[in-house]
Amino acid sequence: MFAAELVRVDGRFIELTTDLESRDEADALVASFDAAVDQWTSFWNLSSDSVADWKVSAMVMRDKSHFAAEGLIPDHVPDFPYGYAYNDSVWVMAQPSQYYTRHLLLHEGVHSLAFHCFDGAGPTWFMEGTAELLATHTGDGKLIRTITVPTDRDDVPYWGRFKKLNQVRTDGSVPPIETVMAYPPTLSGDVETYTLSWAAASLFAGYPEYRETFESAVQSGRDSGPTFNRQFYSRLSKTWPIVAARWRILANDFDFGFDWEQQRLSISTSDPLWDGKPIKFSVRSDVGWQSPGIRIPAGASVKIEATGQVTLADEPKPWISEPPGVTIDYVGGRPLGQLIACVLPNQTPREGNLPPLMVQTVGNDSVIEVESHSWLLFKVNDAVGDLGNNRGTYELTILSPPR
Ligand SMILES: [Zn+2]
Questions:
Q1: Which of 74, 126, 363, 370 could form a disulfide with 122 if both were Cys (CB 3.0 to 4.6 A apart)?
Q2: How far is the CA of 133 from the centre of ligand 1 (A)?
Q3: What residue ranges define each of the domains in the chain, with the CATH number in brackets?
Q4: DSSP label at 374?
Q5: What value does the CA radius of gyration of the chain take, rounded to a whole number of Å?
Q6: Ligand 1: distance of its center to the CA of 115 in Å?
Q7: 126: CA distance to ligand 1 center in Å?
Q8: CA distances from 113 to 108, 109, 212, 341 (A)
Q9: Can you tell which superkingdom this protein's organism belongs to (predicted)?
């Protein structure tokens, strides 16, 4: 078989050279890239001046040796499994799906943008995390939407980020966020590094109160050493126990259709310790974990009583559930619609693997034993990507169990 002719497609921010068989795919890559750049500059609040003279020379390659023979891969480019960026040049291996090829082109493009606008992309977690954050997309061409979470596995063949995260969760090897932020420099990224760095970047981009720290960090891209993280920590030091706790929840829940509008966790280190008096609380069915705004002291027993009905879908007919849940479907091993609780300790380990989250069934009533100072969270059991069609609340009472 002869190597395909190289095709060149010229865009505004990219000049693509490729041996992809499909000219349509090559055109769509260029249109996607140009549309993505506008979204990235607005994400980082960059003026159009800052990218006026930036144009990426991109090689998207099926047959790498063909490009090498043409002198299009300089000697300083290391061997890489997926892609590589150097100043305003990027090299990307074409993947078995158009989605994943596009993702990798965008990923390397984000690195190139960081080199151009910020003189560097920061330490590994920040460099790979922001590249993944800005590259993860839905749609393509002019309709591409970056900085989003795919809703459907079938839309993103070979991308595999949530598959990897699921594996990490199943293995019980979810690291603390500090471990992710300490990833050493790598030349050839592995999917786990990409995935967890993406999750960390998503956390800091997903909460408005971290946004300023995240944005000012990108300005320090030149610094890939320990000073970068030290500054990052110091800006958030007062709230770090919340960052760590939110990371633990995110690492547990991040999945297809995850929507920050539904999943931001409202907790505080100044939430008062529960005094044992009854509290009433409504648990919404259309959002993720919810806290009644208290912390539970170590050694306390908490009795929960719950009533109410929620609607979890309308098709083919309304699916109504009460706190025990309905056994027509299971999510995370528990009946759909079940009222569940999570005891989230105020202290999160900073080393080793994070212990699995303590999630338990509440149903109509139950008693929860709390070992260490913790937040007590509730939600209606459903897939994170399937909350949009939920309605209604469970009404619960938190009280001291009879002695
Ligand atoms: Zn990268």
A1: 126
A2: 11
A3: 7-253 (1.10.390), 265-399 (2.60.120.430)
A4: E
A5: 24
A6: 12
A7: 10
A8: 9, 6, 20, 43
A9: Bacteria
